[in-house]
Design goal:
Strand content: 5-15%
Shape: globular
Helix content: 40-55%
CATH superfamily of the largest domain: Glycogen Phosphorylase B
Radius of gyration: 21 Å
Strand order of the largest sheet: 3-2-1-4-5-6-7
Structural class: alpha/beta
Largest sheet: 7 strands, parallel
CATH class of the largest domain: Alpha Beta
Number of strands: 13
CATH architecture of the largest domain: 3-Layer(aba) Sandwich
Length: 416
């Protein structure tokens, strides 16, 4: 394990490659920048998502110092993994970061963790501990995040359920801190921007509040092929049966998504197929939406944060908190099941209201502060942050029982 220098600033390499990673790591990067006397953030982009990644970072006023630009048409997972590993090796060698931060379960996050491990650099894992317990669902994310867990030294679990998953895998409780989810921080940041700058809020050609809007996102690798065809069949059925409903679908650039979606759904008057949206516009669209229909992970967190019912077009979810809270339903990819769930929410106001008013299980918007405060103590930095994240922790957001974030406990991490 590389020795961490004492004194001076701490260099934190934040590695990201996809739009969701950029959104969820932006609050952490901004908090590191805010504490610039203590930290030197180094943002490394793999370019696993190219245009969408740049758009997401720009929403927060961020640019990467390095961009590996690994995106190639129809590349395999092996090719992405190899490109990220090979691209990060010289960066880590020359920059000598004290710690590498990754988020979630992408191929970029896994490869970055492995690259750091090869050079003895400790890894902090944001959004650690999510599990479906089915290694093929979602694919390859479930295995990516499990492998990252056994590389990482610091585990920033978003919820108590995630923490419990880590404990079941024999991860030391002293290395786990429950922080909340940084996507809530990101949403608060963007909603403040939208409140200040109303010109950033596009109308998308939708009647202002007159008709229900269904926002669709479907792009996961496990949905490629027949599942996506079934999803498109359900969306087409809804459009034909409910002409008063607007369906808005920002379509992923991956040809495995774009080609079947445009082939199945183009030409219907109440379906709007958009290109990928910048995050500010996407948050504005989520605010305008009535129902979120998705196969993604992030919307399962963003929906409850905005009071929007979420229908998850998957058979499993690594975010049971939203489902347990009643803010999301698992509907799979069966067309009839999807249509029935959407129409239930449209036609039964009491059911809709129940889902829309569930408590948000994903935190209070201060996850990034907690993460950076842990890094501060871990690196023996004594300057106090502007607000003490140990005070007034909301229910369900706290250091792990039996493990404080004090300097003494963090010395257990073998980082110094």
């Amino acid at each position: 394990m590389r020795k961490v220098k004492k004194g001076g600033t701490v260099k934190v390499a934040v590695v990201l490659g996809t739009r969701p990673e950029a959104i969820k790591l932006a609050p952490v990067i901004l908090e590191l920048k805010r504490r610039s006397a203590l930290f030197e953030p180094l943002v490394c982009a793999s370019g696993q998502h190219r245009e969408m990644l740049a758009q997401a970072l720009a929403a927060f006023g961020l640019e990467p110092q390095y961009n590996l630009d690994v995106m190639r048409s129809r590349q395999s997972l092996s090719e992405v993994t190899a490109a990220v590993l090979g691209g990060l090796e010289p960066i880590f060698t020359s920059e000598q970061p004290d710690v590498v931060i990754v988020q979630g379960d992408t191929t970029t996050a896994f490869a970055a963790s492995l690259a750091a491990y090869y050079q003895g650099i400790p890894v902090g894992h944001v959004e650690a501990g999510l599990r479906t317990e089915d290694k093929y669902s979602p694919f390859p994310e479930e295995i990516n995040r499990r492998l990252i867990t056994h590389i990482a030294e610091l585990h920033f679990a978003p919820t108590e359920i995630a923490r419990a998953n880590l404990l079941r895998e024999a991860i030391d409780a002293a290395r786990i801190v429950v922080t909340g989810n940084t996507v809530v921080d990101a949403l608060h940041f963007i909603r403040r921007r939208l409140a200040r700058e109303s010109s950033l809020r596009p109308d998308f050609g939708l009647d202002a509040g007159k008709h229900p809007v269904i926002l669709v996102t479907a792009h996961r690798r496990e949905s490629f092929g027949q599942p996506l065809q079934q999803i498109c069949r359900a969306i087409r059925t809804l459009a034909e049966r409910r002409p008063d409903v607007s369906i808005v679908y920002p379509v992923h650039l991956n040809p495995n998504v774009a080609e079947p979606v445009h082939q199945s759904l183009s030409g219907l008057p109440n379906i709007k197929l958009l290109g990928p949206l910048d995050y500010v516009s996407f948050v504005a669209l989520m605010d305008r939406a009535t129902i979120l229909l998705t196969d993604s992970g992030g919307l399962q967190e963003e929906g409850p944060s905005l009071g929007k019912p979420v229908l998850v077009m998957r058979d499993t979810s690594e975010r049971p908190e939203a489902i347990d809270a009643g803010a999301a339903w698992l509907v799979g990819t069966d067309p009839q099941r999807i249509v029935t769930a959407v129409e239930t929410l449209l036609d039964e106001p009491q059911v809709y209201q129940h889902m829309a008013t569930r408590p948000n299980p994903f935190g209070d918007g201060h996850a990034a502060e907690r993460i950076v405060s842990v890094l501060s103590e871990w690196h023996h930095v004594t300057a106090a942050p502007e607000r003490d994240p140990q005070r007034n922790w909301p229910e369900g957001l706290s250091p792990s029982p039996g493990a404080s974030t004090s300097l003494d406990s963090l010395r257990l991490f073998r980082f110094c």
